[in-house]
Amino acid sequence: MICRPKEGISMIRKSLTAFTASALLAGTAAAQDAAPRPDQLEFRGLYKELVETNTTLSAGSCTLAAERMAARLKAAGFAEDQLVLFSVPEHPRDGGLVAILPGSSKKLKPMLLLAHIDVVEANRADWERDPFTLIEENGYFYARGTADDKAQAAIWTDTLIRFAKEGFKPKRTIKLALTCGEEASGAFNGAEWLANNRRELIDAEFALNEGGGGRSDGKGNVLVQTVQVGEKAYQDFTLTATNPGGHSSQPVPDNAIYAMSQALERVGGYEFPLEFNDTTRAFFAKAGAMRHDETGAAMIALAANPGDKAAEATVNKDKMLHSLLRTTCVATMIKGGHAKNALPQSVSANVNCRMFPGRSAEETQAALAAAIGNPAIHIERDVKDKPIAKVPPLDPRVIGPMEVLVAKHFPGVPTIPAMSTGATDAVYLGAVGIPTYGAPGLWNDPDGNGTHGLNERIRVRALMEGRDYLYDLVKVLSGK
Q1: Separation in Å, CA 4 to CA 8, 39, 182, 184, 359
Q2: Which of 4, 126, 279, 444 shows a CA-CA span of 20 to 30 A to 390?
Q3: Dist CA 140 CA 163 (whole Å)
Q4: Beta strand 213-216 with 140-142: parallel, antiparallel or unpaired?
C-alpha cells in the first residue's frame, strides 16, 4: 500500500531474522518446491483469474473481480441469498462481495474473513513482466497483487469453495468480505462502508485479516510466524503557511518558506511519548529473549520497566522498534511559491502520522501545533472522522489455534504477536467492535518480494503452504 502501507509488519519480520536464526532453521519446510497437487492446480485457476483482473484505482474494477469470485462460489453450490455483491452509485467500479456459509450453532457468533482486492498502481513500462499477467518463473508467481492482498483473498474464497464441495458444515457461521479501497487513502473503502452501513452483514465475534505471516531466510526456510494484534492509525496532516508576498528584490524576514521550514524542523525534533500495550509488551519480551545482543536485553528491560531511559535509548536506535513505541509523524511532501522572482504567498507540506492505538487525530494534531508553536501555521486533517485504532485482546481462543497449527505446518518455527506500524482495514472493523487479527501462514522473503514496488512476487511454495495453513485455521476456528 502506497497510502497506508503494511511495511511495519514486514519490518518486524525483518528484524526477527536476526534473532538466533540458526536455532530456528530446524524443522522448517524442505527447500525444494513440491509438484502441485490436483486441488492446488484448481486453486491456481482461481488465483490467476483474480490476479489478472486489474483492480487499480486508476483503471481497474474491484466490482468485476468481486463478480468473478461470486460466480465461482455460486458454481460450488452457494445460493443466491448467501452471496451479496455491493457497490455505491458514486463508485461503481469499487464494489465488493460478502459471502456467507451458515453454521450449525445458534449460540456461536460468526467469524469473518476479510481481504482487500484492490492493488497498488503498476506501470507496465517499469516492470520486467506484464504486471497484470500471472507469470510463474523460477519458483515464484509474478504480478501485481500476487502477495498484497490477492493471495489471501484467493485463499479465503478457495477455502469456502472447498468447504462447500466437501460438504463441511461449520458450527460457527463463516463470512467472507472481499473489499476495495484499502490501497488508496481517502478513496471509497468497502470495509469502512460495510462497517458503517451494513454492520449486520459482517457481524462477527472476530475477524481474520492480512498483516500477519511469516518471514524466511530468502532460501525457503521459514524463521518466524507473526500474528498481527493491533496496528497504528494512518493520518495525513496538511500544514499551510500564507503570506502577502511581494517582489523578490525587496525581501523581508516574514517569509512563508522560512516559516514552514521552522515548523517542519520542530516537527522533526518532536518525540511523542513512549507507550506500551499488551501486544507490544509481549512482543518486546518474547522477541527480545530470542536475541542475544544489547538490543535484545534492552527490549526485555524496557518491557519490564518503560521508565528505563538507558534501555529506551538503545532500543530507539532501531527505527522499527522506535516506531512501535509511540506515535510518529514525519514530513513527506512540500510545495510552495508561485514564481522564481516573487516572495512566496503560500507554502504547504504533508506530515504523515502513524498514531499509536488509542490515540486520536485530534490529540495528534494538537501535539503538532504545540510542537510547532506558531499559530500562523494552519494544520488540517486530510481525512475526517478517522476511527481510533483499537488493539484486539490477546485472546487464547483465537491465537492458541494459530500457534498449534504453526507448530504443525512449520515445525520448530515460533509464533509471535506483533503490532503493525502501518495500517490495514482492521481499523474500520475494530471501530464497530469486531476484533481483527492478522493471520499467520503466508510468508515472504527478507526483501519484501516487491510488494508495492516493481516485479511483485510470491514464492509458489509459500502461497501453497499458506493456503494449507489458512484452510486448517478456518476449519478449526469455525468448529469451536
Answers
A1: 10, 34, 8, 7, 17
A2: 444
A3: 27
A4: unpaired
Of 218, 225, 219, nearest in space to 30 by CA: 219
Q: Helix (H, G, I), strand (E, B), or coil: what is residue 60?
A: coil
- Cell numbers representing residue 112 in the block: 469473518
Dihedral through CA 224, CA 4, CA 202, CA 393, nearest 10?
50
CA distance 215 to 451: 14
Taking a C-beta distance cutoff of 8 angstroms, is the pair 350, 311 a contact?
no
Which residues sit opposite 343 in a β-bridge?
246
d(CA 195, CA 178): 13
Residue 450: all three cell numbers together: 516487491
Mean pLDDT of 165-194: 95
Determine the straight-line distance between the first and last CA of the chain, rounded to whole angstroms: 34
The residues pairing with 372 across neighbouring beta strands, listed in sequence order, are none
The answer to whether 223 touches 17, Cβ cutoff 8 Å, is: yes
Cell 530470542 belongs to 290
What does DSSP say about strands 83-88 and 213-216: parallel, antiparallel, or unpaired? Answer: unpaired
Cβ atoms of 357 and 228 closer than 8 Å:
no
72 closest CA partner among 43, 40, 96, 113: 43
Q: Of 425, 452, 456, whose CA–CA distance to 182 is shortest?
A: 425
Are 288 and 311 contacting, i.e. CB atoms less than 8 angstroms apart?
A: no
Q: Considering only CA atoms, which of 272, 275, 234 is closest in space to residue 427?
A: 234
Model confidence pLDDT, tens digit, residues 203-216: 999 999 999 999 99
The residues facing 346 across adjacent strands are 242
* CA distances, 299 to each of 17, 137, 253, 282, 288 (Å): 16, 40, 47, 10, 5
User: pLDDT tens digits for 6-50?
Assistant: 545 555 555 554 444 433 443 344 434 568 899 999 999 999 999
Angle between helices 294-304 and 278-290 (to 10 degrees): 150
List the beta bridge partners of residue 329: 353
